[in-house]
Design goal:
The protein is an alpha+beta fold. It is about 20% helix and about 30% strand. The protein contains six helices and 17 strands.
Length: about 240
């Protein structure tokens, strides 16, 4: 017996968190009966429907790593008809992005139809490290550096940077290139950290998720993850 939201996520419909929202919204049926609460478990013989469509519980799991270009939405679809990360992957699988990058942020994002892995990577207790390169306005002073080391107050709560280094400084243009690693998943957290330091982000790119690095992936390019890499991601729990 498995929890209903896990079964939905594992079928590649959506993430486990979104599956829970679908259940609470009354959009899921088990053996013809609407299930409107969490905690329900189902067996392999139970028929599960989402929005009236019976799910396939024997799907092949797919895992992709994409270097997201600027101006692309981290979603399966967009009502404004803007390009999405899914548009860049040549697959018949019903994949979706794990987490998100802002419209104007570039870099690594994982896409999969494996709800269990997506849940693992997004759950805050697992503290999956992500490394970014930020071009910011201004030059960091000693107070800025001390605050980065001790935590920066963002929306009433401290945001912590695991480690950081100043890659470059342009004294003439008064800009800096900073590499930093965080484990937080709050929306726009990197931008908000630098805004709190009065150094707005000019450009932002994610170059690493856990042990997965951007490598030779050019903007808009992707690759499949190996079985070894997928197992290693699961071991991060």
């Amino acid at each position: 017996m498995e929890r209903l939201q896990k079964v939905i996520a594992d079928a590649g419909i959506t993430s486990r968190r979104k599956a829970e929202e679908l259940i609470l919204a009354g959009k899921v049926r088990v053996n013809g009966e609407v299930v409107g609460e969490l905690g329900v478990k189902v067996s392999g013989s139970d028929i599960v429907e989402v929005d009236g469509v019976m799910i396939n519980r024997d799907i092949v799991k797919k895992y992709y790593l994409l270097n997201k270009p600027r101006g692309v939405i981290s979603s399966v679809s967009d009502d404004k008809k803007r390009p999405t990360v899914v548009d860049y992957i040549d697959t018949e699988a019903r994949i979706y992005p794990v987490g998100r990058l802002d419209y104007d942020t570039t870099g690594l994002i994982i896409l999969t139809n494996d709800g269990s892995l997506a849940n693992l990577l997004m759950h805050p207790t697992n503290k999956i490290p992500k490394t970014y390169i930020a071009k910011i306005e201004g030059l960091l002073n000693k107070d800025d550096i001390d605050r980065l080391r001790s935590g920066v107050m963002v929306d009433g709560k401290k945001a912590y940077v695991e480690n950081f280094k100043i890659r470059d400084k342009n004294l003439e243009k008064k800009t800096s290139i900073v590499e930093l690693t965080i484990v937080e998943g709050r929306n726009h957290i990197v931008k908000k950290i630098f805004e709190a330091l009065h150094h707005p982000v000019i450009r932002l790119s994610r170059i690493k998720i856990a042990f997965l690095e951007i490598g030779n992936l050019k903007s808009g390019e992707y690759r499949e993850l190996s079985i070894k890499e997928v197992k290693k991601l699961y071991s991060l729990k």
